[in-house]
Amino acid sequence: QPKPQPIKYRGAERLTDMLVHYNQISDILYYEVLDIPLPELQGLKTLKVAFHHATKDEVVIHTIRLPKQSTVGDVISDLKTKVELSHPDAELRLLEVFYHKIYKAVACWILDLLRFSPARKIENINDQYWTLRAEEIPEEEKNLGPHDRLIHVYHFMKDTAQNQVWKFAFLSLGRPEYLQDSDIVSSRFQRRDVYGAWEQYLGLEHSDNAPKRSYAANQVKL
């Protein structure tokens, strides 16, 4: 497979330098045909952003190219010119998704556990391992009261043979604590400024009834 990072402009003097892969010489060189010169491209940051429409099921992947010193706010402004919004005054947010969960690695990256800070520079955002998701901010989330709390929810499965009903659980760092009807859910979740609060979820455990897909492995010998 090709390396995660491309060879920089004038980053190798000889062909053998370009073929070294984990201290071994490969006989395959991967290349991509660009639409702009490589030196110009290296001055830009390219991000692939999945835009989820507010009222439609469609998801469209947009490629955003901006100078490396641009901010998340610049990404959102550029994205607004490319997508269909539910109304002209709709606000967008950018989420970092890892293994289908909204994720945050460093507290200062996100303003409210959900979105990147608009002032954050995009140079160090890595979309190779994370999925960048853009979506409209729902109106009911814009004016949260002092006692309102946003709770992340995800689905999970444990034992598909015995798990035939839906169960609700509080999950912290991946460990489920099943909830009783008398539990007050909001009391389980920490304040948003407490370290680790981003790794707390309301989990919905249920069986997997989706049809299994078969994958065919194809090899091409060159």
TrEMBL record:
Residues 29-162 form the Ubiquitin carboxyl-terminal hydrolase C-terminal domain. GO terms for molecular function: cysteine-type deubiquitinase activity. GO terms for biological process: proteolysis. InterPro entries: USP_C. It catalyses: Thiol-dependent hydrolysis of ester, thioester, amide, peptide and isopeptide bonds formed by the C-terminal Gly of ubiquitin (a 76-residue protein attached to proteins as an intracellular targeting signal). Its EC number is 3.4.19.12. Belongs to the peptidase C19 family. It comes from Sesamum angolense. This is ubiquitinyl hydrolase 1. It holds the Pfam family USP7_C2. It is an enzyme of class 3 (hydrolase). Keywords: Hydrolase, Protease, Thiol protease, Ubl conjugation pathway.
